[in-house]
């Protein structure tokens, strides 16, 4: 597929205009809707950013194949403007403002993760630009009283609570938990919710420690954890963080009845790199391709979304890619319902959405955060993520013991 890619050096960031199905000159000649997508396409968060870009691209491709987005009887093509903020949150804020004031985007997708999404949302709120954060789950993102920010991830406790309840029910001998968290908004918030959930279910939190972003040696921390002999080790971070922690756990021959990691095991890259060392690691996420939803969005069913994704990218989608795609689909539905590109009208339609999608039921709560999903809990078994709950999409039974 032909794509135009225009590169500039503004604010030391890489600006990519991906006009799906259009050349740059054609984009100027036709009616288009511009969506801004600041992403950490380089730096340590690049693996996660690439997933989001794939999700956005698939949605834009499908929308354009169908003729574009219908606005008051007129069709508009989708154009996505990408910026690389190089895994640097202050730069994410700068590039978000650049998109609005210089690139004149109509609508925005939030930067990756809770920390950058929270920071960037101050800019979109200032300019009253409707924004959907596709990878921000922490309540601190949505408790700012903002009107133009929406998010496709349920709160963090919707992951930790069912995971804890499952461990308590299936592994009653688990009494002691050790928690290790990346000192970043989303991973730390998940860890704090895990601590609350564990204590609320009568478990002892014997260890809770943070590690700095970019930490390469966890040996001293892991030695402390090993000395406490917890039955459950819970670690948060991103793909590269968690792979490193798991390798160093193996180096010290640390074993536990339960090992949980969020969010790495949801990604195929983690599964491939961890190999046999990932066996029986548990996790939770906001979506899984095993789901069987029949939606009113452009993708229709979950199965159709998975099929289209596999055809384009030759791999199975995970929750990060699916969330990015549904964010685009939700914008499309809201714009078509509004029959206008007026930002306030589109914002109001987003706030009123109560719709089934391939991603699941979508309804935004009073803060703009989705409150209608039941995220899956899963476990790596035989090199694959096997869904353990909810019962509707359950694929296997919980197994104990991680080496």
UniProtKB/TrEMBL annotation:
<dbReference type="GO" id="GO:0006865">
    <property type="term" value="P:amino acid transport"/>
</dbReference>
<dbReference type="InterPro" id="IPR028082">
    <property type="entry name" value="Peripla_BP_I"/>
</dbReference>
<keyword id="KW-0029">Amino-acid transport</keyword>
<dbReference type="Pfam" id="PF13458">
    <property type="entry name" value="Peripla_BP_6"/>
</dbReference>
<comment type="similarity">
    <text>Belongs to the leucine-binding protein family.</text>
</comment>
<keyword id="KW-0732">Signal</keyword>
<dbReference type="InterPro" id="IPR051010">
    <property type="entry name" value="BCAA_transport"/>
</dbReference>
<feature type="domain" description="Leucine-binding protein">
    <location>
        <begin position="33"/>
        <end position="369"/>
    </location>
</feature>
<keyword id="KW-0813">Transport</keyword>
<dbReference type="InterPro" id="IPR028081">
    <property type="entry name" value="Leu-bd"/>
</dbReference>
<feature type="signal peptide">
    <location>
        <begin position="1"/>
        <end position="29"/>
    </location>
</feature>
<protein>
    <submittedName>
        <fullName>ABC transporter substrate-binding protein</fullName>
    </submittedName>
</protein>
């Amino acid at each position: 597929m032909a794509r135009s890619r225009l590169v500039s050096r503004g604010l030391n960031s890489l600006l990519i205009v991906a006009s799906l199905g259009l050349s740059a000159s054609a984009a100027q000649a036709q009616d288009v809707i511009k969506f801004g997508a600041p992403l950490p396409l380089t730096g340590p968060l690049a693996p996660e950013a690439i997933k989001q870009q794939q999700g956005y691209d698939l949605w834009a491709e499908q929308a354009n194949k169908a003729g574009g987005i219908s606005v008051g009887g007129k069709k508009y093509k989708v154009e996505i403007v990408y910026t690389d903020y190089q895994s640097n949150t202050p730069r994410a804020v700068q590039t978000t403002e650049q998109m609005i004031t210089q690139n004149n985007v109509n609508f925005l997708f939030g930067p990756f993760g809770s920390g950058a999404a929270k920071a960037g949302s101050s800019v979109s709120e200032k300019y009253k630009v409707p924004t959907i954060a596709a990878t921000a789950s922490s309540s601190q993102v949505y408790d700012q009283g903002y009107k133009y920010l929406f998010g496709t991830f349920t709160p963090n406790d919707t992951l930790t609570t069912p995971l804890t309840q499952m461990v308590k029910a299936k592994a009653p001998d688990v009494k002691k938990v050790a928690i290790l968290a990346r000192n970043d908004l989303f991973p730390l918030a998940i860890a704090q919710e895990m601590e609350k959930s564990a204590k609320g279910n009568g478990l002892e939190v014997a260890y809770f420690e943070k590690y700095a972003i970019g930490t390469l040696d966890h040996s001293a921390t892991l030695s402390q954890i090993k000395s406490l002999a917890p039955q459950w080790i819970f670690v948060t971070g991103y793909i590269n963080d968690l792979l490193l922690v798991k390798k160093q756990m193996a180096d010290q021959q640390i074993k536990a009845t339960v090992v949980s990691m969020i969010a790495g095991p949801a990604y195929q890259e983690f599964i491939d790199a961890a190999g046999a060392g990932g066996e029986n690691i548990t996790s939770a996420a906001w979506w899984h391709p095993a789901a069987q939803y029949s939606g009113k969005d452009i993708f229709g069913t979950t199965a159709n979304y998975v099929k289209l994704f596999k055809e384009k990218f030759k791999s199975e989608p995970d929750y990060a890619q699916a969330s990015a795609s549904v964010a685009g689909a939700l914008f499309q539905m809201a714009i078509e319902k509004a029959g206008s590109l007026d930002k306030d009208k589109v914002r109001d339609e987003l706030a009123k959405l109560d719709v089934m999608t391939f991603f699941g039921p979508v309804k935004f709560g009073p803060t703009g955060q989705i409150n209608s999903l039941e995220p899956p809990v899963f476990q790596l078994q035989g090199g694959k993520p096997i869904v353990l709950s909810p019962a509707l999409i359950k694929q296997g039974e919980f197994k104990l013991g991680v080496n």
